[in-house]
Amino acid sequence: MSDQRIVPIVMPKWGLSMKEGKVTGWLMEDGSRINPGDAILEVETDKIAGAVEAHDGGVLRRRVGEPDTVYPVKSLLGVIADPSVPEEEIDQFVAAYVTPSAEDDAEEQGPKYEFIETSAGTLRYAKRGAGDDTVVLIHGFGGDLDGWLFNIDVLGEAATVYALDLPGHGQSTKRLDNPGLDTMTAALSEFMATVGIDSAHLVGHSMGGAIAMHMAADDPDKVDSLTLICPAGLGREIGGYVDAFVAAQGRKDLKPVLEQLFADKSLVSRQLVDDVLKYKRLDGVEPLLKDLAAALFGGQVQQDQPGARLAAGEAPPTLVIWGRQDEIIPATHAQNLPGAKVVVFDDAGHMVYMERASDVNALIKQHIGG
Amino acid sequence: MARKISMRQAINEALDQEMARDPSVFIMGEDIVGGAGGMGEIDAWGGVLGVTKGLNAKHPGRLLDTPLSESAYIGAAVGAAACGMRPVAELMFLDFMGVCFDQIFNQAAKFRYMFGGKAETPVVIRAMVGAGFRAAAQHSQMLTPLFTHIPGLKVVCPSNAYDAKGLLIQSIRDNDPVIFCEHKNLYGAEADVPAESYAIPFGEANIVRDGKHATIITYGMMVHRAMDAAAALAKQGVECEVIDLRTLSPIDWDTVIDSAERTGHVVCVDEAHPRCSIAADVSAMITQECFKALKGPIQMVTAPHTPVPFSPVLEDLYIPSADAIAKAVARSRSH
């Protein structure tokens, strides 16, 4: 099993609760040349569908995973190897492969989540990797750190990556006085100070993008670079998503709202809807989201324009990523930050970092490395 | 933060958090404190199966051990609720409810209606239900249909720890009388439960498994049997949707009818006796609302029309099995 010329493709573990996934189809033929980062096959879990990407290059020598079949996490789905490796060795590798148990996996990766006390309350975060650069991932309105499931591990190969739940979100404290851009940015600042981050590459999605820009404008020393994914704060227009998200009380109201997030509506699974409902039903969440929505997006207008302040001063290196089919914040806002590198994906929506995970990961890696 | 806790702990946590939030909440019942035990223990029992253990120390004076007189303390709880308190009465076994039917059926359930909407009765009556505990015929019944029949009562029967906490919190906050049925064989069952408080609205069924070939509709302990049956059928390529009703009154007809229309094959599973059961009720409504969408006769899988046997062998046969549910799905699909 230690043969470096033979590399297994295994069922990935996307998020804490994933125990198995279904192979829905192969994107590569037997014998295809594989480069690191290539999407090889598609997998669907009860929460989400996504592509399994290659970590190493080589030739796809064997496709083990059958379409429409469910496999446990870490099961062998395929084999990548150098063309010089004989077929018999591939056969032996497949026959000898033993799927590691879930317990081994938990020990190997350490704690998935950690909690710290800050003046903004208890905040949950996840940390991956140990690189010299530090990256902080900041989710959007109503989101949480689990939304980075396709990104955090891959980015952790290149940097020390933190993802946090902002106050009122995920499993962080559900109380925040005067919720708004100032208090959210202060909470991010508190988080960075408490875990000991002097400065970081900030990656912000939607509201998280506005928070990142706000920090870059007020506290430029804390920001090494900005990656803004469908960010708020670059224009006034915003769709009806936020108010509808806050108002939705049950599965039937919430599903069409969540579908606005994706270009591919089929990505909104029942489990995704249920998870968001579970979050929305926690005591304190609804009033906090209402206040936050009024402060940031009252009257369906973006109230804060940190992008304009950033453009007026000296902005850090900035990458703006957008999905052309974003139904919440128009992708045309990407043009409102002069000097930024802009990448717009035609076939993605507001959740472009999920829908085009491998491309977005590659762009971020390149951005923080350069 | 979410962690795995049992349904027993989830119910205890819901009571604890609601008592901390609202001073009008208090608990009464037989041995819910249970007097002083050894080693300075101040709640020796915490209820017959230990569900309320530890609460007396946290909320002194707000847990009332009552005499063995259900008719008296259920009446007292209903009266306290009508006067502005939010009592949670623990009746131990739902089977004992017979001695306080007037307090529940004729008083609590009728106040809002008979006083022209001016009176509210925010009382919760918690009680254990279900067979499989070797507790014989008087301590094992699934009497949910009796209470579901009465307008003015809300009837809840959770299948897991997450739902139990959220539904009990909703029950306490609700302004109408709620019969909260806890399956005794589920007390140890663990699930991910947030430490924070949360309420699950009544009348929202949970789809616990997606499927396109058949719909299994049930609640309580039978959700687990239905999931076992669905897993077995999936191996044969038959994908069943499993619906956990969660609350029987109000009931989520929209989810039930929508699923029945999509799959065309329906199995209603109930641990209650077959006549006038939840299974019979749901079957009748589906037939009325979406007869043309059905591709086979609706099947009912229930306990038999007999008392719950004390013989363990017979008791196991009495409770609807995953195998019986799977066979019922096959029967409907053979048409």
Would you mind describing this structure in some detail?
The complex is a heterodimer of chains A (370) and B (335). In chain A, helix 6 packs antiparallel against helix 7 (251-259). Chain A has helices at 87-96, 102-109, 152-155, 181-195, 207-218, 241-247, 251-259, 270-280, 285-297, 306-312, 352-355, 357-369; strands at residues 6-10, 20-26, 33-34, 39-44, 49-53, 58-63, 69-72, 76-81, 114-118, 121-128, 134-138, 160-164, 200-205, 223-229, 318-323, 341-345. The relative contact order of chain A is 0.12. Chain A is 31% helix and 24% strand. With 370 residues, chain A is an alpha/beta fold. Chain A has twelve helices and 16 strands. Chain A folds into two domains: 6-102, OB fold (Dihydrolipoamide Acetyltransferase, E2P) (Beta Barrel), CATH 2.40.50.100; 111-369, 3-Layer(aba) Sandwich (Rossmann fold). In chain A, the strands form three sheets. An eight-stranded mixed beta sheet of chain A has the order 9-10-12-11-13-14-15-16, with helices on both faces. In chain A, strand 4 (39-44) and strand 5 (49-53) form a beta hairpin. By secondary structure, chain B is of the alpha/beta class. Chain B has two domains: 2-194, Thiamin diphosphate (ThDP)-binding fold, Pyr/PP domains (Rossmann fold); 206-333, Rossmann fold, CATH 3.40.50.920. Chain B is 35% helix and 20% strand. Chain B has twelve helices and 14 strands. A seven-stranded mixed beta sheet of chain B has the order 3-2-4-5-7-6-12, sandwiched between helices. In chain B, helix 3 runs parallel beside helix 4 (101-108) and helix 8 (222-234) crosses helix 12 (322-333). The longest helix of chain B has 15 residues, at 7-21. The radius of gyration of chain B is 20 Å and the shape is globular. Chain A binds chain B through residues 17, 113, 115, 124, 171, 174, 249-252, 270, 274, 278, 281-284, and chain B through 1-2, 162, 166, 192, 194, 196-201, 204, 206-207, 210, 254.
